[in-house]
Q: What sequence folds into this?
């Protein structure tokens, strides 16, 4: 089949459970032009180079070739994930102030006990002898509870922003051959609604801080000032969505992968100190963010002998780079003690995952909590049903039951 | 014909710091089974020097705590606290200051450098006059900083001097920096970033005096009291830190017949030492700060790099080559890299900024305190320096490795428009107080870059 | 145990400073400062930090040359 349709084939829901053969095909061809004028890159070295190339923009407004996501019809400016330096840098540093070093180095570490407690309670709630949906009963509620606690969002509002979040995430679902109009309109509306909700919530903390990140973002002024109301809204929308749409996949992929690899599971049960390495390998082997779909070169750039023109949509397939045999020995093997594992699971360069430390901690704790039970469980369906999204890829449900 | 077996015999490594240690580990990693001896002048096991002028002087880390972790056990004889005093190349023996002779089949010279002392030996002995090279030096100076000196004078505004000045300001200590050149760091980074560094120091309250030399250190009753400058001015100071650069530890090789001198020990790209006739030896290797080696990316000029990364990379290549037969030997081609942290900024460099005729601001701006400057020589990229922008440097390293055209094309998302190259203004090292940390000692028709020190 | 960070590789992702804030800290926005001698009660965190380092720049090991006579 033509490489010009590779992205369409990856996006096809039928490929969701196992896109890796298509990624292998992508790697054989280096940079691949698609028939809509966009480009895919799937080899490790080339992705790594592009992630460190200052001529690659993250701002979709700089595209001159229309992409599957359609023109930006949003009147709300992008959050820092969709901006370039120096704006990206300024906003990311302001958002980092209440989250991590240098100003709040212990913030994530201090959540350790609470994450462990929440994970334990969720696991204790598993009814004996019944089927469990790892997604709905564990992998979704854990990060959502944590991000709500961290940001200062009441958990009882979770059903509201879950609906918004679903619509927003469907907006990045760049499935070609489909009229995106309706989907994009509801994504825009959902984003606006969520922004207003979080903006109001933050405003209510002005002068009344409650120890959470929203309070800090609205009250703490650094030498460079603080976020203006619009920036506050776009940033908190980003953190809330990213905080619960990605880690759920990482945890679920972790359970799925361990149940598919009983040898690795047995090793981890013998030596739980291997968990941090196992989670890094998981980030390589089944990364929750499969690709970065919104890069754009600001100059003509040559990649693997192909010139990618200025303004063309450029899609970096991280999950493919993670399986590149030129970088990783036996890349299709899940090896929890893999040495020198510089995976692209959290991206790299200036846009590397903001919430990586939290995602890592949550997943390590989540899988460690489940470890004693996993040996007695089996998958009800393999492969499980997946969510439609090919960018934020993960099972929609993961049913497991007692083996026996 | 089978390759000559080189995995046994006796290897002596003179120098038990970073390069010596990593070489020893690589030898064992790659299968050397013979007898291994490391000789170190200092009594301490290998330790890391970069923290000395940063965390240690800040009082956050004790000087005793900077030991280097090992990558693996090396099963070596460690002769610490004893200096090598000579080399007998015919008898293949290293002579030690304690009279001992160490026979070897292959030798690695990794004796590094020491701090250049203040030229007036009497003044140098005054209480309050320091150099910082060793862990003991840093320990003594940190103690003095703890006591709260009224004013510190730093002589020489290279990386070491600038880092020490930064520590002083962070600790709330008044500091004067005297630099004979036009600006701090100018010898390593050229004029444009030198100007940036000067503004940075002054913004942090450093009394920076450029274009002057210290003509005398004054004492009273054996204690430092102040200094006089070439412009006739004088200051009171109770501590002076001499940061005039480094002297290569090659004196012990004076009678060895090797090409060893003030510029270091010359070797080929495979780290094999040259003898004084320019003939390469086959059993004597060199690595780290003391080595001078040709680099193809810099027109095969002989480079001496006082860089942490070079000590590691070159030691690994030297060790590999010591136990590999001819065709399996590797060249030391790593692109030079270094970092410095000062005044709250992270400065990183890739390539050789002094090997340049022009420089261009490629990303960010001095006003933001975040930037990438790219250096070029005759139309190709030869170096890049980032300030709080380390995540981009990989891109420029690739440009250096591929001799990409200079100036780099437009398109950087945070690049100034238009980006106009300016002369890189790398001064002749002779005009500087401090010695350069990168010394280009080869021949270039339009440049004079040598490591000859002016007397006094 | 001792650590050394290859600060040439380090790009300031600060994952170590999240995981072991008592050992690793940012000095300013990007420069990493750390304590080379690791207290026993920090060793587990430091190992996790080394595992998580996106550029694999952290070496944890016994003091080199400790067997020196």
A:
């Amino acid at each position: 089949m033509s490489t010009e349709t590779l992205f369409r084939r990856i996006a096809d829901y039928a490929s969701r459970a196992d896109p890796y053969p298509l990624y292998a095909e992508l790697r054989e061809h280096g940079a691949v032009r698609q028939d809509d004028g966009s480009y895919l890159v799937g080899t490790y070295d080339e992705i790594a180079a592009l992630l460190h190339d200052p001529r690659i923009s993250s701002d979709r407004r700089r595209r001159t070739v229309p992409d599957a996501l359609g023109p930006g019809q949003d009147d709300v400016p992008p959050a820092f994930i969709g901006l370039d330096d120096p704006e990206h840098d300024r906003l990311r540093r302001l958002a980092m102030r209440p989250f991590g070093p240098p100003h709040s180095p212990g913030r994530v570490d201090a959540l350790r006990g609470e994450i462990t407690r929440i994970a334990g309670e969720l696991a204790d709630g598993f009814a004996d002898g019944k089927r469990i949906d790892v997604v709905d009963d564990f992998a979704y509620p854990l990060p959502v509870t944590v991000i709500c606690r961290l940001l200062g969002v009441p958990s009882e509002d979770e059903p509201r922003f879950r609906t918004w979040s679903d619509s927003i995430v469907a907006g990045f679902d760049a499935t070609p051959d489909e009229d995106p109009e309706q989907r994009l309109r509801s994504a825009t509306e959902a984003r606006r609604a969520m922004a207003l909700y979080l903006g109001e919530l933050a405003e209510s903390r002005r002068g009344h801080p409650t120890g959470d990140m929203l309070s800090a973002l609205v009250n703490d002024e650094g030498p460079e000032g603080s976020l203006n109301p619009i920036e506050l809204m776009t940033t908190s929308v980003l953190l809330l969505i990213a905080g619960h749409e990605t880690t759920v996949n990482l945890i679920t992929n972790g359970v799925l992968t361990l149940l598919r690899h009983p040898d690795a599971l047995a090793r981890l049960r013998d030596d739980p100190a291997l968990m941090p390495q196992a989670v890094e390998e998981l980030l390589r082997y089944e990364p929750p963010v499969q690709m970065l779909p919104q890069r754009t070169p600001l100059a003509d750039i040559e990649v693997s002998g192909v010139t990618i023109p200025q303004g063309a949509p450029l899609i970096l397939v991280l999950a493919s780079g993670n399986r590149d045999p030129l970088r990783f020995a036996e890349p299709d093997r899940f090896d929890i003690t893999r040495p020198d594992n510089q995976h692209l699971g959290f991206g790299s360069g200036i846009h590397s995952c903001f919430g990586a430390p939290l995602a890592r901690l949550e997943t390590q704790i989540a899988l460690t909590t489940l470890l004693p039970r996993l040996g007695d469980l089996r998958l009800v369906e393999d492969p499980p049903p997946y969510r439609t999204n090919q960018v934020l890829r993960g099972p929609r449900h993961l049913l497991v039951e007692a083996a026996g | 014909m089978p390759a000559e077996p080189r995995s046994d015999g006796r290897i002596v490594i003179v120098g038990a710091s970073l390069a010596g240690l990593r070489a020893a580990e690589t030898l064992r990693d790659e299968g050397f089974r013979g007898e291994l001896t490391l000789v170190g002048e200092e009594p301490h096991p290998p330790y890391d020097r970069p923290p000395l002028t940063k965390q240690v002087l800040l009082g956050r880390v004790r000087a005793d705590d900077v030991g280097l972790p090992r990558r693996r056990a090396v099963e070596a004889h460690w002769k610490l606290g004893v200096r090598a005093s000579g080399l007998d190349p015919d008898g293949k023996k290293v002579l030690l200051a304690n009279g001992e002779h160490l026979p070897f089949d292959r030798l690695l010279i990794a004796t590094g450098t020491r701090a250049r002392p203040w030229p007036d030996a009497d003044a140098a002995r005054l209480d309050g006059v320091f150099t910082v090279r060793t862990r003991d030096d840093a320990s003594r100076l940190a103690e003095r900083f703890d006591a709260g000196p009224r004013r510190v004078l730093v002589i020489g505004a290279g990386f070491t001097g600038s880092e020490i000045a930064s520590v002083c300001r962070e600790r709330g200590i008044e500091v004067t920096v005297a630099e004979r050149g036009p600006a701090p760091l100018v010898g390593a980074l050229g004029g444009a970033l030198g100007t940036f560094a000067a503004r940075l120091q002054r913004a942090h309250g450093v009394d920076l005096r450029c274009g002057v030399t210290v003509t005398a250190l004054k004492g009273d009753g054996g204690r430092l009291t102040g200094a006089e400058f070439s412009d006739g001015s004088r200051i009171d100071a109770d501590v002076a830190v001499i940061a005039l650069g480094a002297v290569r530890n090659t004196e012990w090789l004076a009678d060895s017949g090797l090409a060893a001198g003030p510029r270091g020990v010359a070797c080929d790209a495979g780290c094999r030492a040259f003898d004084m006739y320019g003939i390469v030896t086959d059993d004597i290797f060199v690595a780290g700060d003391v080595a001078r080696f040709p680099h193809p990316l810099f027109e095969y000029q002989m480079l001496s790099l006082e860089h942490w990364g070079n000590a590691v990379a070159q030691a690994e290549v030297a060790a590999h080559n010591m136990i590999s037969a001819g065709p399996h030997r590797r060249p030391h081609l790593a692109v030079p890299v270094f970092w410095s942290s000062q005044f709250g900024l992270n400065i990183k460099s890739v390539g050789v900024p002094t090997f340049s005729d022009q420089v261009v601001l490629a990303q960010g701006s001095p006003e933001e305190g975040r930037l990438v400057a790219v250096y070029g020589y005759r139309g190709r990229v030869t170096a890049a320096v980032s300030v709080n922008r380390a995540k981009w440097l990989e891109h420029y390293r690739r440009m250096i490795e591929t001799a990409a055209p200079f100036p780099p094309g437009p398109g950087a998302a945070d690049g100034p428009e238009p980006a106009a190259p300016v002369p890189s203004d790398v001064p002749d090292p002779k005009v500087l107080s401090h010695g350069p940390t990168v010394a280009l000692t080869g021949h270039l028709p339009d440049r004079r870059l040598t490591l000859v020190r002016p007397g006094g | 145990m001792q650590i050394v960070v290859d600060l040439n590789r380090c790009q300031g992702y600060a994952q170590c400073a999240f995981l072991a804030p008592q050992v690793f800290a940012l000095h300013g926005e990007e420069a990493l400062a750390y304590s080379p001698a690791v207290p026993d009660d920090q060793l587990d965190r430091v190992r996790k930090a080394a595992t998580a380092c996106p550029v694999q720049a952290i070496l944890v090991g016994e003091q080199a040359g400790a067997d020196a006579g």
The first helix of chain C runs from residue 15 to 19. Chain C has one domain: 2-61. Residues 2 and 37 of chain C are 5 Å apart (CA to CA).
